[in-house]
Structure formats: structure tokens, C-alpha cells
Design a protein that fits this description.
Number of helices: 12
Radius of gyration: 19 Å
Helix content: 40-55%
Number of strands: 5
Shape: globular
Structural class: alpha/beta
Length: about 260
Amino acid sequence: MASQIPPQNTVYLLGSIHLLKESDYPLAKQINDAYEDADKLVFEVNMGELESSKTQSIVLEKATAQDGKTLQDRLTPETYQLAKTTASEIGLPIEAFSGFKPWFFSLTLITLKLQRLEFNPENGVDQYFFKKAIKDGKETLALETIEDQFNLFDSFSQGNQEQYIRQTIDELDTLETSFQEMVSAWKSGDDQTLKNLLLKSFKDYPELEDQIFGARNRKWMTTIEPLLEKEDDYLIVVGAGHLVGKDSVLELLQAQGHTPKRL
């Protein structure tokens, strides 16, 4: 997608899949062309800080329970048993998460499952273009801080954290098939299928969907919209879920009178 206000610049919007297989490369020509044309790249966060000790400290601090309550204390007996059984099935002892908050358990569960299916964050679209930008000397910017991202999960209410675990577990049952279907839809530009697959697991959790996608999109607009008036060309790389559904980045741009054009 490109949103252009002649004659200033072009701002490309690329929906990223955060975990891919090596075999998913090379990417489509339109994507690589957009990268080549862009002077600067914009990611959700500062990709260079993801593996830093500072980031690891932030995650650990946010994820660790400070009130003495265990994971089991924070969940209903039914949800805890479901979480325990699901974790056991992929060789993850739930006892290791006793001192952590539910959202951290959910993130770990789904990331580990995808990695076992050979989908790796190192092969994600954002990582690919960040490394390429560094190599090519292109400036990179961020829409939010890594701390912002984990504050999001940490701000989930007790009920939403429990919902997040149940939503994750619901998703795991069909993850191998649905994730591959999502990647295929993404590659072919099948927006409707991509939307259905990305948001299907949130249909019973609309508040959770808004916290993860809509609320952040609305906040990002204060950074994204001014880019349309710059002289440089930009490639914005965000999770594909941010470009579909209610209050997607595309929908918010259209509401402001911009007309995105599909490439």
C-alpha cells in the first residue's frame, strides 16, 4: 500500500509477518521495490534493541509478579488446568511460570509453538528489512518503545489476561494450518482471507483486539500522518494485523481523507 500526496513523497505500508520460514524468501518484487525506493524505514519498535540486556531486564521486570501471587492464583481453576494441559503437550512445564503474569505465559506459549513449526522471528519481515537497512545505511525509526509494547500487556486487566490465555490456547489447536494459510494469504495479497485468519481468534474478545491493535493504531497516527508531508519516502513495516479490521492504520488514514493505493 502507498499513500501519496503529490508532489511531496510516498509512504509505503507493509504488513509484516513477525515469524517466517527461510523458505518464505525471496519476498515479492513489489515489496523489495518499495524498500529500494524508501529513504527511511519505520518499525513498531527499535529493532536494534530487541536483544539488548536492557530489553531483557524490562521484560523480566514487567513479566514478574510483584504481589506474591502465583500464576495459578491469577486464573480460574478451569483456565489454569487448561493452561497446564496445553503447556505439557508442547513440553513446557507450567510450574516454571509460577512467578510470572499470565500474558508472559501466553506469549511464550505461542512463540515456542511457532518456533517448533519452524517459524522463526529471525526470519520475520521486520527483522529482514531492519538488517537490510542497517547494511545499506538507511535510517530507521520506531512508532513506540519496547517498554510501550510490554506496558500494553502489563496493562491488561485480570479478566483480559485470562482471556488472552484462553484466546492463545484456542489458537494453538489449529495454529500449524492457520498460520501457514495466513502466510499464503499474505504472499498472494488476499486481504479478506488474511483479515479473517488474523482476527478469527479475537471474535469472542473484542476488548482484547482493540487493546492489541486498535488502540495502538490510533496512537501511531500521530507519528504516521505527519510522514505524509515530508520530503523523504518511507517504508512503514508493522504487523499485518494492524492493517486489517476496525481502526486499522489504513482505515484511520482513510478517515483523515487519505486514499491508500494498492501496489
